[in-house]
Amino acid sequence: MGSEKTPVTSRELMNQMLKRHYEEAYQAKESGKLVCWSTSIAPQELLTTMDIVTLYPENHAAALGARKDSPTFIEHTESMGYSSDLCSYARVNLAYTELGHSKAENMPLPDLLLCTSNICHTVIKWYENLSKELNIPLIMFDTPFNHTDEVQEHNAKYMKAQIYHAIEQLEEITGKSFDFDRLQEVMKISNETSEWWKKATDMAIHTPSPLNGFDLFNYMAIIVFARGTQEGRALFQLWHDELAEKVKLGQGPWNDREERYRILWDGIACWPYLNHNYKTLKNLGMNVVTSTYPKSWTVTYETGDIEGMAKAYSMNVYPNRNLNYDVENMVSLARKFQLDGIVFHSNRSCKLMDFRQYELQRRIYEECGVPSVIFDGDQTDPRLFSEAQYETRMQALAEMMEESKRKKGRD
Amino acid sequence: MAKVHDLIQELYDAGYHPAQTIRRSMQRTQKPAVGLFPLFLPEELVYAAGFLPVGLWGGVSGFSHADKYLQSFCCSIMRANMELAMLGSYDVLRAILIPSQCDTLKCMCENMKVALPHVPILGVTIPHNRTLSGAHEQLLSEFSYLSDALKALQDPSATPISLQKAIAIYEKYRATMMDFIQTVPDYLQTINAKTRHYLIKAAYYMDKEEYTETLSALLSELKKQPKEDFHGTRMVATGIMIDSESVLDLLVELEIAIVDDLLCQESLQFRTKTRESGSPASKLAYRFLDLQAASVLYEPKKPRGTLLADMAISHGADAVLFCLTKFCDPEAFDQPLVQKDLSERGVTMLSIEIDQHVDSVEQLRTRIQGFLETKL
């Protein structure tokens, strides 16, 4: 680490942080520190306060997918008796737990688990199985699905009670008292990191966008694991400043191409085909300026307010909100980012996002006339994606957006 | 024996023809019906509010409308419910309750609000972290919100009853059902797998008091008959449901009887007793908090496999029949661990896929025959 050069750009810092993330986890594990595996949008504040090293299986599975190493694990899970219809992140992780090694990226096995149900019900079952198979404690933070427009008060109280229970569980697991003063500091940093993440991703409202949207997917790995750290905060501030500079200079997402269409990507990336997906869009002049994701990690609340924090984990995460919220959120993104189109990823791994997409697509078009396409794929199972279908759908979207631009021009 | 057959036929028909049974029950009780989606809901609240609660567990195999809202990899129960809603079959309902017990159900709640704008859709949140006192408090508030919503839908002529009385009616129903479940293994010729299923299912479409009375009469007549020999295969079924006529016909043809179950649509609805102390709402809450061995529940100790092994051993069953509903994630996560637990106890498991959308069972026939020949 000492020989590493001091990063000067946010990309360099990001790459260093990613590299150190797993290395440091191994060192910590060897030195007897506890390692926790957690779902991606969980109250890490509690773990950071307790100085527990936290790793994120979704991040790890995505990395294995992007580096073409997911098939080994997917095949192994099927031999373990798991159906191929299950979430491929879960399949990759459950197999990794048993095999223990990937040629792409490795992480130490956990001593405890933290599961938050805001992203789906699937993680409850996935983490339950991990807990049983590894015989380690599981801390569950259940965030009831908001079928109403707002978080209901009794659900907020239930979530608050769970945070206090999680603290008790952590005290029992670590044998240490929970330091509420330290929690305040971590809450403050987490809020600030979230704010800088939002400010940076919001830079894409400029036309042309200084942000090449697929970078969003790369930086997302960091917001997942470094939200409660000073380094995470520094990274997003630096990224924001770089993007602001690009705006000042009138620079768009690419040096060799103009941003012709501004689109929103709904859903998780197709990691095994990231490069193909990106190039297909770029060749058509389509830039991903936003996604439904950035807001999910903008978990903000009053520092010190435990119920507010619990509530934020329920309401900021769009899969945990109702259809009205989904529509309003996407319409507001369409207006704010001046979208020309939307790409919906019908991701075989994610039923919670998929089974609202058809209605969402109709309502968005009705409300703001933004055309969209849906393509079939999967976040980490490469067998569930067709390059030809993706390319055809993107060409169709480009044609729809062109037609829409022509009409607007005539009006 | 004629009386037994008549009573069986009466309940069998009631379970086999849901729409007809619901219409008849509405006429008899003069109550508007309220639909309850799978899996677990506080039915007693609906009953106490003066409505006829009816279960909505799919039932069609062809989908021509549901694709407007759902991709093809959605479970067939929910696709069927969407299809029925869009065909107008649910227009007769005063309201529909949908719990958020899995990801597909969460989406169904949202889609049904759009697909069926003229029927109020009430989302119900059942907490997962059930051992905490906060979960009990959450449920009490949820029940209160639900009772208010139901009250607002009552006719002026409605005849609500107290929750305590409704719970008593349901406790009697649950006790009778458990008696039935325990009696069936002695009469496996008269009550084969298919008959057992439709008799249990009839409860979803009839008034609970009327159903309990008919089932009690059947049990009392049945117990007068000598116990029957059965030389086929005895299995304990588990899963969301075994509600596929072609699969049930196949089981009967291959002489496979169900001697007990941990199916969400069947005994898991009535296996958990109501606690004896506490307010009616609290008792009702604990029935949810005490539920066990359903895949949609959060159970870090995962007791399902052990319970199934106990059941199979105590019944002298030949195997556990894991009925995996196609595209059901909670079930698919449970299956490998259940298999492991059973195998550690020396209990054999046969896994079959349940898909209301698929009528052909030829492949399944070969698989089950192979299983019977090699594993038993």
In short:
The complex is a heterodimer of chains A (411) and B (376). With 411 residues, chain A is of the alpha/beta class. Chain A is built from 16 helices and 8 strands.
Question: Explain this structure to me?
Answer:
The complex is a heterodimer of chains A (411) and B (376). Chain A contains 16 helices and eight strands. With 411 residues, chain A is of the alpha/beta class. Chain A has one domain (10-410). Chain A is globular and about 70 Å long. Chain B is built from 14 helices and eight strands. Chain B is α/β, with parallel strands linked by helices and 376 residues long. Chains A and B meet through α6, β4, α7 and α14 of A and α5, α6 and α13 of B.
Q: Which descriptors would you attach to this protein?
A:
heterodimer; A: alpha/beta; 16 helices; 8 strands; 54% helix; B: 376 residues; Rossmann fold; 3 domains; four-stranded parallel beta sheet; globular
Q: Within the largest sheet of chain B, what's the order of strands?
A: 2-1-3-4
The helical percent of chain A reads 40-55%
Shape of chain B: globular
Number of helices of chain A: 16
- Low-pLDDT sequence parts of chain B: none
Spans of chain A with pLDDT under 50 lasting ≥5 residues? none
**Greatest interface:** A-B, 49 and 53 residues
N/C terminus separation of chain A: 59 Å
Radius of gyration of chain A: 21 Å
Topology:
The complex is a heterodimer of chains A (411) and B (376).
Chain A: H1 10-30, E1 35-38, H2 44-49, E2 53-55, H3 57-66, H4 70-79, H5 88-99, E3 112-116, H6 122-134, E4 138-141, H7 153-174, H8 180-202, H9 214-225, H10 230-248, E5 261-266, H11 274-283, E6 286-291, H12 306-315, H13 323-336, E7 341-347, H14 351-354, H15 357-368, E8 372-377, H16 387-410
Chain B: H1 2-16, H2 18-29, E1 33-36, H3 43-48, E2 52-55, H4 76-86, E3 95-99, H5 103-115, E4 121-124, H6 133-151, H7 163-183, H8 193-201, H9 208-222, E5 233-239, H10 245-253, E6 256-263, H11 280-289, H12 304-315, E7 319-325, H13 329-344, E8 349-354, H14 362-374
